[in-house]
């Protein structure tokens, strides 16, 4: 037994064994969570991934992880960013291709933040088809733009886990602290009303066609994201 494994408690090992046995019984699900900034993707995805044994693939996190790990696509992305350029769709799709090979993605994934455009959706579809797979469901979180302003300006995030809180709707138990670790929460620099309006404009222009793309394939489940968090979770479960 390795030193690192010896340090793990028997209870933790048994819990992990139980989790793996339960996950073996789950059906594979490859999903996309789509919604404007503040719709609740970052809140719902961590809960759903645990219940269905999926991995949560947030584009920004994947990109940073690939660069840090020095993967083939991560090195390509780093050279592009070092040159002051935007990482292209082919590289992002390559990073997704690397990520979905991870053991934690065995039962499927939740894609969060990609695809944002129809060309990206088509590249993703081609990637999965090459692996004999496809997107099973697109969870479309719908919410009024005006409500999002309050959601966004009140949002605080635990960087390490991605857990999201809101001082108006879902406050942490202790102000400014993560419920589970007690570590400080942060507020994103672009979480302002003016910047949100611009992000919403871009979202509606670019991403609505993505929803239409998958709707034609009968894969979209539109959910009212203005409901209480638990009701949104239940609606997602029904549609998955």
Automatic annotation (TrEMBL):
Query: Which residue range or ranges hold the Adenylate kinase active site lid domain?
Result: 155-190
Under InterPro entries, the record lists: Adenyl_kin_sub (IPR006259), Adenylat/UMP-CMP_kin (IPR000850), Adenylat_kinase_CS (IPR033690), Adenylate_kinase_lid-dom (IPR007862), P-loop_NTPase (IPR027417)
Please state which protein family the record places this protein in. Belongs to the adenylate kinase family.
Keyword Zinc in annotation:
no
GO MF annotations for this entry?
AMP kinase activity; ATP binding
Species in which this protein is naturally found: Tribonema minus
- State the source organism's domain of life: Eukaryota
Instruction: Enumerate the Gene3D superfamilies for this protein.
Output: P-loop containing nucleotide triphosphate hydrolases (3.40.50.300)
Q: Which Pfam families match?
A: ADK, ADK_lid
- PANTHER family of this UniProt entry? NUCLEOTIDE KINASE
- The molecule here is called Adenylate kinase
Q: Which UniProt keywords apply?
A: Kinase, Nucleotide-binding, Transferase
